[in-house]
Design brief:
Strand order of the largest sheet: 1-2-6-7-8-9-10-11
Strand content: 15-25%
Shape: globular
Helix content: 25-40%
Order of helices and strands: HEEEHHEEEHHEHHEHEHEHEEH
Protein name: Diguanylate cyclase DosC
Distance between the termini: 40 Å
Number of helices: 11
Bound molecules: ligand C2E, calcium ion
Length: about 280
C-alpha cells in the first residue's frame, strides 16, 4: 500500500486493483459508460438487531460491461478515479439511489440510503453542492442519506475532511466510517468530528465464531462506538451464529449475505414486500 501522506491521491489498494492489462482495457471502455447507461446500483439491506426491522440500505455500484457482464467495483473504481471519472459517477449514484429509495417504504416509513464516496470524490470541491442539489432534485430530506467513507479517505486531508463532515451534518446527512478497524489512523478524529456510524470491517466477522481474538476486537469497537454515541454496524454477516453473537455483544445493525445479497431495485422492492424484517 502506498502511503497517503506524501501523495494523497496516488493511492493503490494493490489487492483490489485491476491488473495492468485490464486497467488499460477498462480505461478505454469506462469512458462513455455513464452515457451508455452501463452502470447500475444494487442495494443491500441493513437490519436493526434489537427490533429485526430494516432501517436502511447500502447502494453498491456495478458496471454492466458489454462483453464481460456484471463487473464488481473493485475492478474499476480505481481506474475511474485515475481517469477523473469518479465525481460524475458519484453524482449519478446519488441521483439514482435517491430516486430509487424514494419509492421504498416499510410500514409507511421511508428507507434511508447509504452511498460510498471514495477519496477523490470526497475531497473534490463540488461534493457538498452536488449532494445539496441531488437532495433538492429528488425531494428527499438529508436525514434519509448516509455517506460512507473510509478512515484513509478522511486522513488524506483531515482538515479539509473535517470541514466537509461539518457541511454534511448541517444538511442532516449522516456519516459512517466504513471498514472501521482496518485503517492506519489514530482514533482521535472520532471525538471531534460529527460521525454517526462505525461499520466494523467484515474481516473481523467472518471468523468470529472460531476466533476469540476477532470477538475481542468486535466487542471493543462496539463499546468504543457506543461511548462516542455512534451506531455500530457489522457488515459481511454470513451466518445466523454470527448474527446472534453480534446481538449478544450489543451491536446495533447488521448487513450481509445472511440477510440478503445486494439486489437490483426491482429485486430489492420484492425483498422489502416479502421480508418480515
Ligand atoms: P464496501 O463499502 O466495504 O462494501 C461491502 C462489500 O461487501 C460489497 O462488495 C458487498 O457486496 C460485499 N458484501 C456484503 N455482504 C457480504 C457478505 O456477507 N459476505 C461477503 N463476503 N461480502 C459481502 P462490492 O459491492 O463488490 O463493493 C466493494 C467495494 O467497492 C465497496 O466496499 C466500496 O468500497 C466500493 N464501492 C461500491 N459501490 C461504490 C460506489 O458507488 N462508489 C464508490 N466510490 N465505491 C463503491
Ligand atoms: Ca460501504
Ligand atoms: Ca466496508
Ligand atoms: Ca472495503
Amino acid at each position: 500500500r502506498a502511503k497517503w501522506n506524501s501523495a494523497p491521491f496516488l493511492f493503490f489498494e494493490t489487492e483490489e486493483d485491476a491488473s495492468a492489462t485490464e486497467h488499460l482495457q477498462f480505461s478505454g471502455q469506462l469512458h462513455g459508460a455513464l452515457e451508455r447507461e452501463e452502470f447500475e446500483l444494487h442495494y443491500q439491506p441493513k437490519i436493526d438487531l434489537a427490533s429485526g426491522r430494516i432501517c436502511g440500505a447500502e447502494a453498491l455500484l456495478r458496471w454492466q460491461h458489454p462483453q464481460q457482464g456484471l463487473v464488481l467495483p473493485k475492478r474499476f473504481i480505481s481506474v475511474a478515479e485515475q481517469l477523473g471519472m469518479i465525481s460524475p459517477i458519484t453524482d449519478w449514484v446519488l441521483d439514482t439511489a435517491l430516486a430509487h429509495s424514494k419509492q421504498w417504504q416499510v410500514g409507511g416509513e421511508p428507507v434511508a440510503i447509504s452511498i460510498n464516496v471514495s477519496a477523490r470524490s470526497f475531497h473534490s470541491p463540488g461534493l457538498i453542492a452536488g449532494i445539496r442539489q441531488a437532495l433538492l432534485k429528488a425531494g428527499v430530506d438529508g436525514s434519509q442519506l448516509e455517506v460512507e467513507i473510509t478512515e484513509d479517505t478522511l486522513m488524506a486531508d483531515l482538515d479539509h475532511g473535517a470541514g466537509i463532515l461539518e457541511e454534511l451534518s448541517k444538511l442532516g446527512v449522516s456519516i459512517a466510517i466504513d471498514d472501521f478497524g482496518t485503517g492506519y489512523s489514530s482514533l482521535s478524529y472520532l471525538k471531534r468530528l460529527p460521525i454517526n456510524t462505525l461499520k466494523i470491517d467484515q474481516s473481523f466477522l467472518q471468523d468470529m465464531a472460531n476466533d476469540p481474538r476477532d470477538v475481542a476486537i468486535v466487542r471493543s469497537i462496539i463499546e468504543l462506538g457506543h461511548n462516542l454515541n455512534c451506531k455500530v454496524v457489522a457488515e459481511g454477516v454470513e451466518a445466523q451464529g454470527v448474527r446472534e453473537q453480534l446481538k449478544g455483544l450489543g451491536c446495533d445493525l447488521v448487513q450481509g449475505f445472511y440477510i440478503s445479497k445486494p439486489l437490483p431495485d426491482a429485486g430489492f422492492r420484492e425483498w422489502l414486500s416479502h421480508s418480515t424484517h
